[in-house]
Design a protein that fits this description.
With 502 residues, the protein is of the alpha/beta class. It has three domains: 94 residues, Udp-n-acetylmuramoylalanyl-d-glutamate--2,6- Diaminopimelate Ligase, Chain: A, domain 1; 230 residues, Mur-like, catalytic domain (UDP-N-acetylmuramoyl-L-alanine:D-glutamate ligase), CATH 3.40.1190; 154 residues, Mur ligase, C-terminal domain (Protein-Tyrosine Phosphatase, Chain A). Helices cover 32% and strands 23% of the residues. The chain contains 16 helices and 24 strands. The strands form four sheets. The chain has an eleven-stranded mixed β-sheet, sandwiched between helices. Strand 17 and strand 18 form a beta hairpin. It starts with a helix and ends in a 10-residue tail after the last helix. 48% of the residues are buried. The C terminus is likely disordered.
């Protein structure tokens, strides 16, 4: 692509050098630039891209976009100065990749919990209806048989537009995107032409980044305000959880047409007669498009909410309720979200990504309803994240479980013992006898396996699908599921400790 076709979209710019050069790649990471590249210098939290312009040139950059003059640039490299590189980044990325979201029907799903499961439910329903659908989120980018791992729930601006372009080239009709508060705050979804946005819920999380719940709520507001105000934009849809008080706040801040879903309050799409059972859950639903009985293989009221959000989204795409029912009946869940591990034993083991207070509470409540024996929870709080939720989560774990093994969860640069001290500060006196601390996560999981008896259930929370453990500068391959299976194998070989009566 000729550089001029990228820069002509920019209003305020100063250009030194030729705009006739051919641009073959675009990046904000100098290490990823290849010959023919356009390097955009973006100031970050820890490093400033302006300091890496010369490295980008050594790797093949033929043009640099920056917020200031950069002395020492070779004369054959075009230098483009703009007021704000982060703001013009989505303009460049959209132009470079051919404005891909104008050729896809884009659905964005935001909220504290439920984004991953809801996006996968929507993807399944749409694909089952022969509408080729791609998905981008915490686990991966995927369309058809093509899949790529993602580093962030909502990828950075350039990567995101590249993913959309890939979906277009694979014949995609729809894209379903998990939209995180971090992604919104950092402008990663600017330039994305959403036709539908969905709100799941708002609860305590990410206060290390947003400082308080009001700021956290206001950041998610951006997804609704960015739908626009034109006549065309008023044909777009905002799908809101009628049982979450933040929905009324978002409803006032969007010009899109609003459709609600819920359980407790009046809603356009509403579930009643909910039953949580060992094999899944059942409920009845009433909608403007009909009514019917649904069954899910996944557990818990929180998954009924996820199903309602997905159902509402797909009803608005003209898919009949009966087809939605059939799709959801065969929805097998998502890796690391209340994922049952086949152990061959008479006790159950579940790994779950629950890593905030409401997510942990929902998981433990759902598990308790379908557990005949005792419930043993393995949980920790990761480092470099919201410290305020640590004592709250420890209290929830001890309150809703018969026994808790408090352990670590990716401490990163923090001291695991300090994290644990903050967690244990939330425990009350009546919870003194149903927990122990084992900082080594592998040993904590092994201990849980040793404690479990017939009809008991082990819930291992916090990491879900994750396959690496980060402590300081060390990164270790680590899967909670793998540790469970190794512990069972060790027990089969006779390695077993004496266990207390629970």
């Amino acid at each position: 692509m000729i550089l001029k076709s990228l820069t002509e979209r920019l209003i305020l710019k100063t250009i030194t050098g030729s705009t006739s050069v051919d641009i073959t790649n675009l990046d904000t990471d100098s290490r990823e630039i290849r010959p023919g590249g356009l390097f955009v210098c973006v100031p970050g939290f820890h490093v400033d891209g302006h300091d890496y312009a010369l490295q980008a040139i050594r790797n093949g950059a033929v043009a640099i976009v920056a917020e200031r003059e950069l002395p020492g640039l070779p004369g054959n490299v075009t230098h483009i100065t703009v007021p704000d590189t982060r703001r013009i980044l989505p303009i460049l990325a959209n132009a470079f990749f051919g404005d891909p979201t104008q050729r896809l029907k884009l659905i964005g799903i935001t909220g504290t919990n439920g984004k991953t499961t809801t996006t996968h439910m929507v993807e399944k329903i749409l694909n089952d209806a022969h509408r080729k659908t791609g998905i981008i989120g915490t686990l991966y980018m995927k369309i058809g048989d093509h899949m790529e791992k993602t580093l962030n729930t909502t990828p950075d601006t350039i990567q995101l537009q590249r993913y959309f372009h890939t979906m277009v080239t694979h014949g995609g009709d729809y894209a379903v995107l998990e939209v995180s508060s971090h992604g919104l705050d950092m402008g990663r979804v600017r330039g994305c032409d959403f036709q539908t946005v969905v709100f799941t819920n708002l609860s305590h999380d990410h206060l290390d980044f947003h400082q308080n719940m009001e700021s956290y709520r206001n950041t998610k507001e951006l997804l609704f305000t960015q739908l626009g105000n034109s006549n065309r934009d008023m044909l777009k849809k905002a799908i809101l959880n009628a049982d979450d008080e933040a929905s009324s706040y978002y409803a006032k801040r969007t010009s899109a047409q609003i459709v609600t879903y819920g359980i407790r309050n009046e809603a356009d799409v509403r579930a009643t007669h909910i039953q949580n059972m060992p094999e899944g859950c059942k409920f009845h639903v009433e909608t403007p498009w009909g009514h019917g009985d649904f069954s899910l293989k996944v557990h818990g009221v929180h998954n009924v909410y996820n199903a309602l959000a997905a159902m509402t989204t797909c009803l608005l795409e003209g898919i009949p309720l009966e087809e939605i029912c059939r799709s959801l009946q065969h929805f097998a869940g998502v890796d690391g979200r209340f994922q049952e591990i086949e152990t061959g034993r008479r006790f159950r083991v579940v790994v779950d990504y629950a890593h905030n207070p409401d997510g942990l509470k929902a998981t433990l409540q759902s598990a308790k309803e379908i557990t005949a024996g005792k419930m043993i929870c393995v949980m920790g709080c990761r480092g470099e994240r919201d410290r305020l939720k640590r004592p709250i989560m420890a209290d929830i774990a001890a309150s809703y479980s018969d026994y808790v093994l408090f352990t670590t969860d990716n401490p990163f640069s923090e001291d695991p013992e300090q994290i644990m001290a903050e967690m244990l500060g939330g425990l009350t006196s009546h919870e003194a006898g149903n927990w122990e601390v084992i900082l080594n996560r592998k040993e904590a999981i092994q201990r849980a396996v040793e404690l479990a008896g017939d009809e008991d259930r082990i819930i291992i929370t916090g990491r879900g699908h994750e396959t690496r453990y980060v402590a300081g500068s060390q990164i270790e391959s680590f899967s909670d599921e793998d540790i469970v299976m190794r512990s069972l194998q060790d027990m089969g070989q006779g390695i077993q400790m004496m266990t207390p009566e629970l």
